Amino acid sequence: MSVIKDSWQHEYITTNGIKLHYVTQGEGPLMLMLHGFPEFWYSWRHQIPEFAAYYKVVALDLRGYNDSDKPKEQSAYVMDEFVKDIKGVIQGLGYEKCVLVGHDWGGAIAWNFAYDYPAMVERLIILNLPHPAKFAQGFRTPQQLLRSSYVFFFQLPLIPELLIQSGDYQPVEMAFKGMAINKSAFTKADIDAYKDAAGKRGALTAMLNYYRNVFQQRLIGQNWGILEVPTLMIWGEKDTALGKELTYGTEAYVRDFQIKYIPNCSHWVQQEQPQLVNQYMRDFLYIKEQIN
After folding, report:
1. DSSP letter at 200?
2. For an engineered disulfide with 99, which of 31, 155, 271, 280 has Cβ 3.0 to 4.6 Å away?
3. pLDDT tens-place string over residues 115-140
4. Is 211 known to be catalytic?
5. Catalytic pick among 22, 211, 253, 280
6. Domains of the chain: residue spans and CATH
C-alpha cells in the first residue's frame, strides 16, 4: 500500500468497552472520518493528507472492521452502540466537537450522531447515504427494494460469509470494481488492502451484522426533526445501491443544507473522484488555500 504516508500514525483508543483502531495525521481541530461497507479507514486515503494541513484528521476503523475489536454478539452492532463509540472517540481524543465525515454506513452513523449530539458536530459531511427519513421513505419503493436486495441476502446465516470468501474474496473486488465507473480508481494494491481487512478473523460476520440488525438501526419508523448542524451532502449519481431520488427533499430535514452531485461517479465517490470531493469539502469548510 504505497499510498500510505510515513506521517500517518496508527493509534488505538478504548471506549464504550472496546478498542478501536484509527489512522491520524495533522494537528488542530478534529475531523473524524467514518467509512462504510466493505471498507475500513483506507477508503479516506485521498482525504487524509488533503485536510491534515488544517485539522487533526482521524480515520476510524468502525467496530467489527479491520484492526478494531470485533465483538462476537450480533447485538453489539446496533446504532446506539455505534453512536456511543463516536462520542467516546471524540471525548477520548480530548475534543468537545468535530467536523464529522461519513460515507455509506459511516454516513448513517454520522446522521444519527448529529441528531443525538448536535453540539458535538461543528459541520457534517455525508457521502452517498441519504437522510434516515428519506431512506425510510425510499425503502418502501420497488426500485429501492430491488437495489437493496443484497440486504435481504445478508440476513442468511453463514452463506454470505462463505460467498464473500470465495475465489480469494473475489466478491470484495467486484463490490468496488464492479460498481465503479472509473475502474482505474482502484489499483490491485487497493483491492488487496480491502481483501486483507475483510479476511481478518471475525471481520466478515461483524461487518454483516450491521445489516443483520438493519431493522434496529433507526433507519425505519422514527420521527426526525430539523437538524441544526450545517450539512454538506456529496452524491455520486451512478450509485447502483442507493438511488439519487433518495436525496430529493433532504432540505426539509436540515436547516442549513447543501448538496453536490457528481455525474458519472459511483457509490465510491471519495475514492473515484477524490479531487472533486476534496474541493467541495474545502469550499464547505471555507478552506481557500491550495495544498500542494
Report:
1. S
2. 31
3. 999 999 999 999 999 999 999 888 88
4. yes
5. 211
6. 9-284 (3.40.50.1820)
